[in-house]
């Protein structure tokens, strides 16, 4: 077992990047991801990590540098938040289409405007359809483990796709948690060197990023989506192997007291732990309630959700992003689609809350439960959503 | 036509017959940019990795499943050729250092048009030059967004009519002066900056070779005549390039470690009218406008000569 250290989550994420023996780090400062790149620059400048640290002039270049590095076969890392993600958006899409296995930590922060540095999921939802594998981490330990998992999956020959690890800004990035480090041997066992199928090298010239005329474009896009859909099996086996090595087992969705629950909360990211405490308190009051935490966001775990929600009467979906003019938050929209063909459809109540770091505590989730039950009773088929905790609403 | 030195006649025989930018691409007739790309590829040779911006050269050379590139080539987006080349250079450097790829000298070339360089790509270019990557950035300047249909860029010369700076009844075409990107590159204090033109192939090849040899970032700005956008017969491409140099509109010079040198001195400057009159994009210019251009060209050329004198001892 690796040693257990009390460490800020951002710093431990950087330590995991070091353990992954990353070759290139493209870094541009933006709150709340800055501590990660700051610590990486220390590790490189102190000679603890042999990597090129490239202090780019923008996030657009951060992703472009990562693309170039990955194309020559280097293991590339970058991280960003909100506006930075928006600025690199163009290249985020291209990196996926070029099948370059870059790993990025996204310290989730709200999208401007108004400008805000605090946490929600409006940034990641803006690139929901970018073609990357996307996971949410629930704790510092999960962040650490998923950096190594990220390269393992992204660089698998049958996947070859970039991967985003979402971690809640401040709520996760800036807290100190006990983190269990991996032993060097465990990393070696789990994460082989990156061996690209093709790399830019004069000994075997290849053309990357060719023009796709209409006669080939659709085929190219399907050839991109299929491996993303199919990557789920690699993801699950990589989690299994991770568990066998370090003893922590992960899955596309995590359930808590859900088996017999009439009502299920559904969350993404760090809210899961708070909701689990609310579930405990509601259970103490004799209420049949449970929780599903979504870890894998893309490819979306359809089967897992269908199975896990099969017996529930009500779902309370917690979204931390807005689909302006749409029918609720992105998670709720996907869940409605998942369950559309099911015979016993649960009622879905969707709350959008915690925007830009507004605190949502145990009592709030209990309130949401009661609000949801009221709504289900009074307006059972009404499928809209509600902003929770907003003044004047 | 300027005079050819006997050594220059002989020198052509020394150029490699090997092409790394293959024929059969889809450039327009008389495209001097495609010619420049071919010469740059010849100069750099086999052990080169190219990062190309979106633009004419990317479109004409890589319609899947075809490619004109016999060297490794990557295209990611419009404004980021310098950043992609940065990543490739840094990535290869660390892979060789860690022993994951056998050690070998590889030249990294970033290439873009004038839009991809002087407008949308200038931030990525400046960043890469400042960080000091060991790479060459070549701007193929055809003085407008030709790929999208001849729209003006900040590199379009004063007076030129384009589809977004048309010669109108009130506004006579482009009313701003061409942005001087080689000077912007030189202001980064990089070891090598040069201008070139495929009408002077030996000069171009020598400069690109020098750029590859020098450690650190190098910038080469190549005037690339575009018959389609400049509205001139394809047969006049090479001549137009020569006239640009002979009139002083586009002087050929280099800045090596801060030292300026005019590499092709064609003697007394010809009147700019000789250059302007063969191009349809300048057809609407009246004498006042031509005089204005003439004065500016002389002024800029004199400035350049002063820089040569001033930096002689550097």
Q: Which tags fit this structure?
A:
heterodimer, A: Rossmann fold, Rossmann fold, 2 domains, seven-stranded mixed beta sheet, six-stranded mixed beta sheet, 12 helices, B: 314 residues, alpha/beta, 13% strand, globular
How are the secondary structure elements laid out?
The complex is a heterodimer of chains A (393) and B (314).
Chain A: E1 4-8, H1 9-19, E2 24-27, H2 34-45, E3 52-55, H3 59-71, E4 76-80, H4 82-97, E5 103-108, H5 122-125, E6 133-136, H6 140-154, E7 163-168, E8 176-180, H7 184-190, E9 207-208, H8 214-246, E10 253-256, E11 263-268, H9 271-284, E12 289-294, E13 296-298, H10 302-309, E14 314-319, H11 330-339, E15 347-352, H12 362-378, E16 385-387
Parallel strand pairs in A: 2-3, 2-4, 4-5, 5-7, 6-7, 11-12, 11-14, 14-15, 15-16
Antiparallel strand pairs in A: 1-8, 6-13, 10-12
Helix pairs in contact in A: 1-2, 1-6, 3-4, 6-8, 9-12
Chain B: H1 6-14, H2 32-44, E1 48-52, H3 56-61, E2 73-75, H4 81-97, E3 107-113, H5 114-119, H6 122-131, E4 136-141, H7 181-186, E5 192-196, H8 201-213, E6 218-223, H9 227-230, H10 237-246, E7 253-256, E8 259-262, H11 272-276, H12 287-310
Parallel strand pairs in B: 1-2, 1-3, 3-4, 4-6, 5-6
Antiparallel strand pairs in B: 5-7, 7-8
Explain what this protein looks like in three dimensions.
The complex is a heterodimer of chains A (393) and B (314). Chain A contains twelve helices and 16 strands. In chain A, 53% of the residues are buried. In chain A, helix 1 (9-19) runs parallel beside helix 6 (140-154) and helix 9 (271-284) packs across helix 12. Chain A has 393 residues and is of the alpha/beta class. In chain A, the strands form three sheets. Chain A has a seven-stranded mixed beta sheet with strand order 3-2-4-5-7-6-13, sandwiched between helices. A six-stranded mixed beta sheet of chain A has the order 10-12-11-14-15-16, with helices on both faces. A two-stranded antiparallel ribbon of chain A has the order 1-8. Chain A is globular, with a radius of gyration of 21 Å. In chain A, 41% of the residues lie in helices and 19% in strands. Chain B is an alpha/beta fold. Chain B has a single domain, classed as Rossmann fold (3-Layer(aba) Sandwich), CATH 3.40.50.970. Chain B is 39% helix and 13% strand. Chain B is built from twelve helices and eight strands. In chain B, strand 1, helix 3 and strand 2 form a beta-alpha-beta unit. In chain B, helix 2 crosses helix 8 (201-213) and helix 4 runs parallel beside helix 6 (122-131). The longest helix of chain B is centred in the last third of the chain and has 24 residues, at 287-310. In chain B, 54% of the residues are buried. At the A-B interface, strand 3, helix 3, helix 4 and strand 9 of A face strand 1, strand 2, helix 4 and helix 6 of B.
């Amino acid at each position: 077992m690796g040693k257990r250290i009390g460490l800020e989550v951002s710093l431990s994420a950087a330590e995991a990047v070091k353990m992954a023996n990353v070759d290139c780090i493209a870094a541009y400062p933006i709150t709340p991801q800055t501590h990660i790149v700051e610590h990486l620059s220390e590790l490189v400048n102190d000679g603890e990590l042999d990597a090129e640290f490239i202090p780019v002039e923008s996030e657009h270049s951060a992703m472009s540098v990562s693309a170039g590095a990955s194309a020559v076969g280097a293991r590339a890392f970058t991280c960003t938040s909100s506006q930075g993600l928006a600025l690199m958006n163009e290249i985020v899409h291209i990196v996926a289409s070029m099948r370059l296995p870059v790993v990025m930590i996204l310290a989730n922060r709200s999208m401007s405007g108004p400008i805000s540095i605090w946490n929600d999921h409006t940034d990641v939802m803006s690139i929901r359809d970018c073609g990357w594998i996307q996971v949410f981490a629930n704790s510092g330990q999960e962040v650490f483990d998923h950096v190594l998992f990220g390269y393992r999956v992204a660089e698998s020959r049958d996947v070859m796709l970039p991967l985003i690890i979402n971690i809640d800004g401040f709520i996760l990035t800036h807290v100190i948690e006990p983190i269990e480090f991996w032993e060097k041997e465990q990393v070696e066992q789990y994460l082989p060197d990156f061996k690209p199928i093709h790399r830019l090298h004069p000994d075997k010239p290849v053309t990357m990023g060719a023009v796709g005329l209409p006669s080939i474009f659709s085929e190219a896009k399907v050839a991109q989506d299929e491996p993303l859909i199919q990557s789920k099996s690699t993801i699950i086996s990589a989690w299994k192997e991770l568990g066998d090595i370090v003893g922590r087992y992960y899955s596309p969705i995590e359930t808590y007291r859900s088996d017999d629950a009439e009502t299920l909360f559904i969350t993404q990211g760090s809210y899961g732990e708070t909701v689990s405490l609310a579930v405990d308190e509601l259970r103490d009051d004799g209420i049949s309630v449970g929780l599903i935490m979504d870890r894998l966001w893309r490819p979306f775990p359809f089967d897992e959700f269908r199975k896990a929600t099969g017996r529930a009467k009500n779902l309370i979906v917690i979204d931390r992003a807005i689909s302006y003019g749409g029918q609720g938050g992105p998670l709720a929209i996907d869940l409605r689609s998942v369950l559309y063909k099911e015979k016993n459809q649960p009622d879905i109540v969707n709350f959008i809350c915690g925007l830009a770091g507004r605190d949502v505590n145990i009592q709030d989730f209990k309130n949401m439960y009661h609000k949801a039950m009221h709504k289900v009773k009074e307006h059972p088929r009404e499928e809209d959503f509600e902003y929770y905790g907003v003044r004047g609403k | 036509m300027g005079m050819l030195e006997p050594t220059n006649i002989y020198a052509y025989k020394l150029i490699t017959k090997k092409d790394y930018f293959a024929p059969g691409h889809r450039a327009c007739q008389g495209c001097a940019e495609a010619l420049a790309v071919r010469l740059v590829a010849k100069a750099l040779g086999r052990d080169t990795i190219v990062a190309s911006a979106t633009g004419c050269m990317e479109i004409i050379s890589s319609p899947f499943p075809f490619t004109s590139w016999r060297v490794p080539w990557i295209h990611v987006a419009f404004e980021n050729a310098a950043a992609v080349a940065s990543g490739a250079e840094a990535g290869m450097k660390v892979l060789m250092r860690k022993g994951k790829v056998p050690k070998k000298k590889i030249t990294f070339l970033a290439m873009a048009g004038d839009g991809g360089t002087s407008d949308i790509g200038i931030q990525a270019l400046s960043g890469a030059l400042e960080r000091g990557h060991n790479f060459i950035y070549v701007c193929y300047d055809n003085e407008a967004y030709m790929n999208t249909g001849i729209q003006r860029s900040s590199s379009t010369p004063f007076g030129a009519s384009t589809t977004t700076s048309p010669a109108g009844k009130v506004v006579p075409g482009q009313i701003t002066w061409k942005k001087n990107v080689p000077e912007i590159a030189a202001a980064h204090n990089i070891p090598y900056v040069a201008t070139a033109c495929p009408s002077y192939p030996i000069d171009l090849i020598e400069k690109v070779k020098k750029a590859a040899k020098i450690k650190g970032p190098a910038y080469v700005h190549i005037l690339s005549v575009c018959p389609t956008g400049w509205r001139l017969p394809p047969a006049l491409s090479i001549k137009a390039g020569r006239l640009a140099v002979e009139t002083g509109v586009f002087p050929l010079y280099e800045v090596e470690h801060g030292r300026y040198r005019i590499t092709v001195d064609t003697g007394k400057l010809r009147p700019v009218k000789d250059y302007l009159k063969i191009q349809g994009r300048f057809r609407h210019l009246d004498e006042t406008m031509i005089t204005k251009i003439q004065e500016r060209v002389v002024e800029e050329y004199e400035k350049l000569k002063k820089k040569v004198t001033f930096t002689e001892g550097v």
